[in-house]
Design brief:
alpha/beta, TIM Barrel, Lyase, Ornithine Decarboxylase, Chain A, domain 1, 2 domains, 8-stranded mixed β-sheet, 17 strands, about 25% strand, binds pyridoxal-5'-phosphate
Length: about 400
């Protein structure tokens, strides 16, 4: 068996995703919240071995593009467990996914496009609609959104299409929520919305996709994990109401919760220098390997502090990642960690206390399993590309 440390030294800069940890996180959700069907939001980490690991645990797929629908099929997800929800689907997109998933319409013109396409195919299909509801995550009124159709407009529009039946709704307002009560209220509001919509002609609710929101802890010194048992309790109560009402399937989506902590980014220290008293560690593929820490530093540079409000998925909080140097302890120094690009933005940590690292050492950056590799400008400056691996412990 290959030694993990040796493997990392050989392949850095690279992402390593730990299969065991992914499975553990999947089961934390599946075991504690048995009331729903879970979809994996592929955009969090589309690396096929990672996707396969998650779906092998019993997740369906939340696909945000044609290629994610095709990836989900490739990973073995059956078509009735793939939901395709994204704004701006073209006729070409519709054609490519036809018969391969449940399509969630994102606008009124998309409903018409879908109806026309189905008519040309001489088929009758069930679809979902993404709704921008008359409530937000913690308030009781609507806010404008580039996603979905306003609830108010839905109730003013004729939804009878000859070749379409609306059988589900999809609502998604926010990511990275650690307040279970807030999520519980939100699920309740979504359920009531589904009940209202079920009364419209052209609509027969069979599934409610409550979207994402399940947060994960990035900094254990400041955050408490989401109380999954509270989420479960809220959904249990809705299940009871559903049992003698809509009898709809309940769906939750999540990306980061299952993969974020399972991934670490490893890169090599290739130089060190001191400028005007400041120590710099220069690593390979910093912002072009893992963008998120660089965005945090950029925001701080422009606002004076790390912003408290997340800008998902580019930025979560100031201490969203931890940095380590493999095999080094003690002998701390304060450093800036920068990359090998010709731009002063290529900084992933400033004034960080770290054990002294030497040229050739490996720097590890935690919480790199979601919105890591696929969100980074890998092609910038024609550097070599950071690789990705699924690490299996046997
Ligand atoms: C991105 C996304 C998710 C996943 O968000 P996470 O915070 O990674 O769990 C879920 N639903 C929708 C609609 C999304 O766009």
């Amino acid at each position: 068996m290959v030694d993990k440390q040796e493997f990392i030294f050989q392949h850095a800069p690279c992402y390593l995703y730990e299969e065991n940890l992914i499975k553990e996180r999947c089961h934390a959700l599946l075991d504690k919240i048995p009331e729903v069907e879970f979809l994996y939001s592929i955009k969090a980490n589309p690396f096929l071995p990672v996707l396969k690991t998650v779906v092998s645990q019993g997740f369906g797929a939340d696909a945000a593009s044609v290629n994610e629908v095709l990836l989900a099929r490739k990973a073995g997800v059956s078509k009735d467990r793939i939901y395709y929800s994204a704004p701006g689907k073209t006729v070409q997109d519709i054609k490519k996914v036809w018969g391969k998933c449940t399509i969630i319409a994102d606008s009124f013109s998309e409903l018409e496009r879908l109806n026309r396409y189905a008519e040309n195919q001489n088929e009758y299909i069930n679809i979902g609609v993404r709704v921008n509801p008359n409530f937000s995550m913690n308030r009781e009124f609507a806010t404008s959104s580039q996603f979905g159709m306003d609830e108010e407009q839905i109730f003013e529009t004729d939804l009878c299409f000859l070749h379409l039946k609306i059988t589900g709704i999809h609502v998604h307002l926010r990511s990275q929520i650690l307040d279970a009560d807030m999520l519980g209220r939100y699920y309740h509001n979504c359920y009531r919305l589904a009940e209202r919509m079920n009364k419209l002609s052209g609509v027969e609710i069979q599934f409610i996709n409550f979207g994402g929101g399940i947060g994960t802890v990035y900094d254990a010194t400041k955050e408490t994990p989401l109380a999954l048992e509270k989420i479960s309790y809220a959904l249990k109560r809705l299940r009871a109401r559903n049992g003698c009402g809509l009898r709809a399937k309940f769906i939750l989506e999540t990306g980061r919760f299952v993969v974020c902590h399972a991934g670490t980014y490893y890169t090599r220290i290739v130089d060190r220098k001191i400028s005007c008293g400041k120590t710099y560690l220069i690593v390979q593929n910093a912002m072009n390997g893992f963008l998120r820490p660089a965005i945090a530093e950029l925001l701080k540079e422009n606002t004076g502090t790390f912003p408290l409000k997340g800008q998902e998925p580019l930025y979560t909080s100031g201490s969203q990642c931890e940095f380590f140097i493999l095999g080094r302890k003690g002998n701390d120094e304060t450093v800036d960690i920068v990359g090998n690009l010709c731009t002063a933005l290529d900084v992933i940590a400033k004034d960080l206390m770290l054990p002294r690292g030497e040229i050739g050492d490996i720097l590890a950056v935690s919480n790199a399993g979601s919105y890591g590799c696929s969100l980074s400008p890998l092609l910038f400056s024609s550097q070599m590309r950071s690789k990705e691996f699924l690490w299996k412990e046997n």
